[in-house]
């Protein structure tokens, strides 16, 4: 017997204080994004299955329309946004800074609420980190204990090209980076042991200065990561060169804010349908769960 108050596993229910926090978070983010020249877009909840499948590991929730075409619930807003904007971008008919506040749906019954931001004219992720900090600073105004809460938030900087280059040069399967298989990574080459021990800007600088015969491609990407870290003064900043991006379309530098093993904000450089862009997502559910 299913009780009347039960909901399917993975679905979300917000009421009272949590619903209020969710609305305040969305309002705060909207205000910051509008101030930075972004416009809002709401993409369809349904899309043709061919536009949703094989884009990453997320399973889709599917059905059929009146013509028996396979339809899926939206399972990635970034891809939908780029796909729908692409024809208009070529005509220069619309702007190139967009945000959305809408859930995605993953098979069988999981819904993920998020605030997403896409910039199709500038691939610099530093402004995204700065906007993320604005949102996080604003959130402290309606948390239970703002002073202690802020100390738990970490910023992690990475570059997806670094594990890809290491996989190519040293014959390490990418799955080892995805699963953080330290043994497989460390045993591949002495250099990998050095990269595994990098945790901040200073330790990355030491590797760059003291390691002889760094492969050129690898050195170039490590320097990009160091340059980004040098521009950030956030106290709890981690540098993780071998952390692999959870999204397959990420192509370069990326970052995430996390606390207590929950990712709050994730963003970086990506390429979809030949369009280079930069974006980030605020994971509303994780933030509210942490309050």
TrEMBL record:
Pfam annotation, one family = tRNA-synt_His
UniProt key word Magnesium: no
- Residues in Class II Histidinyl-tRNA synthetase (HisRS)-like catalytic core domain copies: 18-287
Q: Name one GO cellular component term.
A: cytoplasm
Alphabetical keyword list: Glycosyltransferase, Transferase
Please provide the Gene Ontology terms (biological process) for this protein: histidyl-tRNA aminoacylation
Q: Which GO terms describe its molecular function?
A: glycosyltransferase activity; histidine-tRNA ligase activity
Q: Which PANTHER family match?
A: HISTIDINE--TRNA LIGASE, MITOCHONDRIAL-RELATED, HISTIDYL-TRNA SYNTHETASE
What is the protein name stated in its UniProt record? ATP phosphoribosyltransferase regulatory subunit
